[in-house]
Amino acid sequence: MNLIVNGVEREIESAPLTTLLDVLREELDVTSPKAGCEQGGCGACTVLVDGEPQRACLTAVGVVDGAEITTAEGLGTPDDLSPIQQAFTHHYAAQCGFCTAGMMLAAEAYVRRGGTDDREAIQEALAGHVCRCTGYVKIIDAVAAVARGDSFDLTVTAPSQGMTNLGGVS
Amino acid sequence: MTQTTEVLLPTSADEAASLFGDGKGITVIAGGTVVLPEITHRRLVPTRTLLLARAGLDKLAVDGSSVTVGAGVLVGRLAELADDVKALAQCALNVADYEIRRQATVGGNVCATAGRDAPRGDLQGPFLALDATVRSVGESGESSQPIEEFLANRSGRLLLDLRFEKPARSAFAAIDYPHTHAYTVLAVTGVRTTSGETRLAVTGVAGPARRLPSAEAAADDPEKAGAAAVGDVAFADDALASAWYRGRTLPSLVGRVLGELGEAS
């Protein structure tokens, strides 16, 4: 079996029923997809399979033989962050970071398919992703900013836009 | 563990049926959303595994008044039927989340048995209300039977597709669930057939989805129908809700569905 992981073709030795998550983390040492619940409920293992977000923990590698896999490592580099990575940085949308890779890939797919900065639509797109730090407001701020096409100054942190929308803290 | 498993990857429906045979000793994986965690957490150690991903069972077709849904159709694709069968599309969009709906299949959802902590089989209710016919293969070869019969004895059968007639109207109502889980707690589907019959089914009760015959008989009076529905089914406690809560909520869902179907006078 073969996978194209972040643009690089990799031969896979794991058995066909091994989860894509285990193949990425244990065989290929690609560790941004996280093993959270390992039953599809938390979203931390989400990667892009041929451009669409998919739970790596629910995917037998034999089913995606030959597919293009994109993980957070494939979005940008430390010196050249992708827009979604810049947005998460600028909006302080990562706290412990465990959900961040999955959130960013779901957000990347949302923006690619023409998603807008509508907060309810973003919530629906990210509904399968749980943030154990409950940092949802800033995550949604970040995704909305990318959907709007904002540019980001990474030397400062943006004030949260979401709190006013929630009608709460002033 | 998985190293010793024989993995079969058919590339056609006929090949899948042939490899499935009588179903004995076969673990079927379509989308994988139910089965993969069982394997990962070693609650299931398959010896022969049939992967359906490339078996071509993904036909979704509307031909005049007749609708065919292949077992391999992704749950999210049922949204395409919003103009034909609104309730089925609504139910599909109520399943889990965007990613799961793009991976889970109709066949897997219909065939799923109850989970340990939550009900499964969201789509069983709509297909029951639609009086779908299930085509499957297994020990006795290929057969077509009403979904009610299939659900009662689906072990050892490989679901190929479901067929039904487009209804005149349909409606769907479910208990809202919080962001922290994505399971259907309780949901009711109602169908008004082209001949004027009202059919109601509920998902989230003990066992597979069930028809609500007493409620159907009282469909002209939503309040009476809601009360009657409680006697048609058994409820179970699980991690999502108590049997008591489900029993208290079902009449409201039945009333909403009948109201939308226009049964209220």
Layout of SSEs?
The complex is a heterodimer of chains A (170) and B (265).
Chain A lengths: L1 E4 L2 E4 L8 H8 L18 E4 L2 E4 L12 E3 L12 H8 L9 H13 L6 H7 L10 H13 L13 H4 L5
Helix pairs in contact in A: 2-5, 3-5
Chain B lengths: L5 E3 L4 H8 L5 E4 L5 H6 L7 E4 L8 E4 L2 E5 L15 H8 L4 H4 L4 H6 L12 H6 L3 E6 L2 E6 H6 L4 E9 L3 E6 L12 E6 L5 E6 L6 E2 L1 H5 L4 H8 L13 H19 L4
Parallel strand pairs in B: 1-3, 2-3
Antiparallel strand pairs in B: 4-5, 5-8, 6-7, 6-8, 9-10, 10-11, 11-12
Helix pairs in contact in B: 9-10
Low-confidence stretches of chain B: none
Oligomer: heterodimer
Largest interface: A-B, 28 and 29 residues
Assign the CATH class of the largest domain in chain A.
Alpha Beta
Which ranges of chain A are low-confidence, i.e. pLDDT below 50, for 5 or more consecutive residues? 166-170
Percent of residues of chain A in helical segments? 25-40%
* Mean pLDDT across all amino acids of chain B: 93
Report strand order across the widest sheet of chain A.
2-1-5-3-4
Helix/strand class of chain B: alpha+beta
